[in-house]
Amino acid sequence: MPLLALCLIISGMIAPVAADSGYETIYSDWADNGDTVTANGCYVKFTIQNGSSNVYVSVKSPSYPDKEVTVSPGNWYYYYNLLRIYIVEIDQAKNKVLVDIARPSGSQGDTSSSGTKLSCDVPGQLALGGDIVSFPILIQNNNDEDKTYTLSSSNSAKWDVTFTYGDKGIYKVYVPKHQSKVVNLMIQTTGSTSVGEKKVIAYVDSMSIDLYVYITSVNQTVDVSTKVTSKISSIGDKIFYDIRLKNLQSKENIYKLSVTGLPENWYFRYKEDSTSFDEMAEVIVPASGEKNLVLEIVPPYSVDVGDYNFIAVITSPDGTQITKDLTLRLKSGVGMSVTTSKLAYEAKPGESFNIDVYVSNTGKGAALTNVYLETSAPTGWIVQVSPNQTNSIKAGDIQTFRVNVVPPGNIVASDYEVSIKVKSDQAEKEKDFRVTIKTESYIPYIGGAMILLVVVGLIFMFRKYGRR
């Protein structure tokens, strides 16, 4: 016999499906990949391996050693004398497994005069979706010794379930011998739960009791959802949260829109979309329809870096408030401003002139880093920048760059363009400058020289030929 099979027979047992009247089903449903089901005081986790036709089953119990086995569809796995786990089928497309978990018959609360007895006066209750339902469970310790019981539960509706005793949340309870205590099983149903009966199993050690909640209708008029509830933005950025309202009723409803918990001097506005200028105080949603909104948060420019929490509130016509907790992390923002004394200059061929460029960090908190200038000028022009680069400009500080420009000596008089681009790790800006080149006119000098030559020529001719 293979060693693996021998080990499985010793600690538990895997067997093909066969009739077994000694067990009663306590959980029969689909389980998502990675789900953990609580059954008969044990915790059973199902894992579907990619591409595998088997299911990896992990079983934990406070009273027995943990076990991990692989079970194929159509086979059982017996976990000591506590559970029989049957894998019905695997849905690879939906990443789910259909399972049936059973316990030995008669393991539910003992009704005899010895052992432990579980009972509930109201094991089935009616509720609206979203209500909190309370089941009082009597634990009767008929043993000849005091006992501390471990409490747990399971339900296919994935509701939040807790045990309470008085005003305390508990997961264990102490009951002296031949005495009883009442603990409350608190169930928080959800507004999205479908109408119908839902089963909840309460476990007290290895014993259990079945409880039922019948959802008669949804208790919520609107379902509120957001694409994201937490954002990271720089100071000065626009901040938007996308919110979707779904009317769960068969009639048109008007919902009021608000926000609570904003710090002082912060503002909010609901809009149709991020480009809209119109603010909304309420919105009309058709019967069973949906509406998409944008919530814009506007902090003051003087806001500090840090984490902020606030709540989007949607109020239904009956006054019910549906809330969404939102968070915002603001990080340091930077801004760049580039100024000069003028944008137009005059120069002569071959003569240099300076352009002073003032770069300031108009942001809050963070510095502009690795700031330098890139220049563009006509061919033959000489452009030098001082300093070549600065490592950082702190928020509120200004750095002056001097750009020395020398046009060629043989350039034609005209208008020319010089471009200066300021670059950094965070931002960049560009400015264009007009440079007018003016040259001196030599025509008057040439004309004067020609007139002088004519006069000198006439005098020479007069002296030479005038006496004849």
UniProtKB/TrEMBL annotation:
Keywords: Membrane, Transmembrane, Transmembrane helix
Transmembrane portions of the chain: 442-462
InterPro entries in the cross-refs: A-galactase_NEW3, Ig-like_fold
Domain Alpha-galactosidase NEW3: 348-423
Name by which UniProt lists this protein: Alpha-galactosidase
Organism this protein belongs to: Methanooceanicella nereidis
Taxonomic path: Archaea, Methanobacteriati, Methanobacteriota, Stenosarchaea group, Methanomicrobia
